[in-house]
Amino acid sequence: MVLENLAFTPTRSAKLDDAIDRSLKYLQGQLAKERSYYKAAMEYRLLVHKLGRKDPSLTGEVKELLEKQVKGARESYRTASTSYLLNFGEYSRAFDTKAAYSEVRDFIRDRSSYTESDAELLALTLFLHHDQQDEALSPEVTRFMLSLKQGTLWRNPMTLEAVEPLLRTVTPTRFAPDATLHLGEVTYRPTVLDKATGHIVLGLTEPESKMVIRWEGVTTDFAFGGIRYRVTEPAAKATPTGEKLTIGKEVYARRIINGTSSLVRLTDEREAVAGEQLVVRYLIETKQDLSLVTIRDDRAAGAEPGYDFAGYGMSDRTWYGYSRRETADYIFIDYLQRGKHVIELETTANVAGHFSYGPAEVQSFYAPEYAGNSAGGSLTIRRGE
């Protein structure tokens, strides 16, 4: 992976080049070893090509291994994963005949028309653009790439491949000295820090049922933005918000019913019992892939996490980390795929009483315009019999 990333480095020193040559020599030696774990002959030849080195002279068993792997890839790339497909596509572009590569490229173009993943679509789009780098990206592709700024665009070695055409295509956003933000009836002149970060915090004395946001003195090819707001209403009566990223919150009690462990949803009419194990379920839905999504949930008084203060978990296809503090729980998701997801945390009902809890809040760190909150609620815990 380190050597592959160095292929994108435009300037290298003599010392670094020497280290690269020694590393490639070591890898080629590993290919020839009988019990070596490194047997990726096709990937090795492509890596040497990316680093601008002479095509390696592979002989004997290593040459046979390369031919076998290339043949296998050629027979299976149509049913393989996108990463495998693109890897073989790069190999075909570098070493195949024009006719053979054209066939692979046509299939990649077809695959890009029906993928359901934003990450895959971006990777396929960049691969296809590689063959006409002198041409500017279309406005549709540029808009799509910029819309993924909080996600796949900034992941893995694909980053520089994505940034380079953007730098040649997109005009930087510029603020005039008298740039002005009109937020409903409020007029605001952004500071130098506001212009640099793109993040502005304003307080409104009275809520407005309808608000128009307008900029003056700003020039840009593409603009993205969003509003994150807080209202002063009782936490238990908070109403759900969010459009492209939403979250719901449900509280259950784990009980034995007819000899089977079951989850019983708690409501205003259905109480928990002191000592019961509670399960807090978060229902998350996103309209597109997002990176570094955070969830904050003010835990109801009377429900304690025990000694499980931090850790990691996996729900369906989503990995997450969690941190449980004095009054709130935090969940951190590195990469959230488009679709619906369910995450659960457990607590214990330890004090009898009637308690209110606030809404769970969800937001994408790199794209704060993607945010939402659940409804608030209340939890009643009665003493055990």
N→C terminal distance: 61 Å
Number of strands: 17
- Structural class determined from secondary elements: alpha+beta
Mean pLDDT across the residues is 81
The outline comes out as: globular
Q: Please outline the major beta sheet.
A: 6 strands, antiparallel
Helix content: 25-40%
Key descriptive features of the protein:
385 residues; alpha+beta; six-stranded antiparallel β-sheet; globular
What does this structure look like?
With 385 residues, this protein is α+β, with helices and mostly antiparallel strands. It is built from ten helices and 17 strands. The chain has helices at residues 2-6, 14-32, 41-50, 60-76, 82-95, 98-111, 118-129, 139-147, 158-169, 192-197; strands at 174-183, 186-188, 213-219, 245-257, 260-265, 272-273, 277-286, 290-298, 303-304, 310-315, 318-324, 328-336, 339-349, 353-357, 360-364, 371-373, 377-382. A six-stranded antiparallel sheet has the order 10-11-12-8-15-16, with no helix packed on it. Strands 5-4-7-13-9 form a five-stranded antiparallel sheet, with no helix packed on it. The longest helix has 19 residues, at 14-32. The radius of gyration is 27 Å and the shape is globular. Residues 150-157 have low confidence and may be disordered.
